[in-house]
Amino acid sequence: MKYLLALLLALPSALSAETIRIIAPYTGSLTNKYVSDAYGLDLRDTGEMHGLFAQWLNTEKFQINAFVYTAPVVNYSDVDGLHLNADYYLKPTAAGKWVLGAGLETLDIKLDAGRNIPGLTAFALDNTVSFYYGRAGRYFNFKKGWLSSSLLPYAGWAREKITGELRMDPNGPSPARTIDIGDSDSHALAGLNLNATIAHFIDLQGKWMGRFKDGRTLDEYSLMANIFLNRHWGLSYRYKYMEYGSSSNGYHLGGVAYVF
Fold it and tell me: What residues contact residue 181 under an 8 Å CB cut-off, 6+ apart?
């Protein structure tokens, strides 16, 4: 994967005994959607997907998360993505802590549908979506018996950039066209993360992030469930749905997590 270097840079070369590290390979399926009212396109397809997740965490100081994935054949496309974020914790107490964080997400789609779209003798799309954001919020911690949980509301600002071009050749006398689909914008974002740990071996996470743009909200939802079999090994499930303007991705993944 082209983003493997970025993932490796997110991992430390030397770690202290206070940290927790997780590596989890995943496999599953991704559903990709591309819609264009201007060109009468509504492309939806589901294909196989593979990914690798890594986390470096110190519960009182910071966390770094990285996830790279690829879906080689979906919607006539090769889809690659990267999620990377880092948080720094301030004034941690048993009741909670303040958070300053930053992150980036990128999505690359290379589509070549050939003659498979009605009314077109050729259709191709190169599309890269990137957005970078900063955020601030606070964790609120709760504990009762075997249940430990936390809630993180946050707000921030994002910069989004779209690059690429669409190439299409209609049936009939109309000439082939190449259309630049580049765009960029800045907008506010907000989010809410909920984490829960049950009896130290079941870990559940739910997250929502919304980016507010041109009177609409681009939503991102994610769920994760981990069941740890011992100190080092666990089973993991991950779901995520992401909106990127005219396109969206949603995936279901299962994997094995190794903690060290």
Answer: 125, 127, 162, 164, 165, 166
Rounded mean pLDDT of the chain? 89
Instruction: Write the pLDDT tens digit of every residue in 188-234.
Output: 999 999 999 999 899 999 999 999 977 889 999 999 999 999 989 99
pLDDT digits 0-9 by tens, 153-173? 999 999 999 999 989 898 878
Interacting residues of 217 by C-beta distance below 8 A, sequence separation 6+: 210, 211
CA gyration radius for the chain? 20
112: Cβ contacts below 8 Å, ≥ 6 apart: 76, 77, 123, 124
Distances (CA, A) of 152 to 102, 134, 195, 196: 15, 15, 9, 12
Q: What percent of the chain has pLDDT over 70?
A: 92
Q: Which of 168, 81, 72, 85 is nearest to 128 (CA)?
A: 81
The ranges of the chain with pLDDT < 70 are 1-18, 38-39
Look up the pTM and report it.
0.86
Q: What's residue 39's pLDDT?
A: 66
End-to-end CA distance of the chain: 24
* Separation CA 26–CA 67 (nearest Å): 10
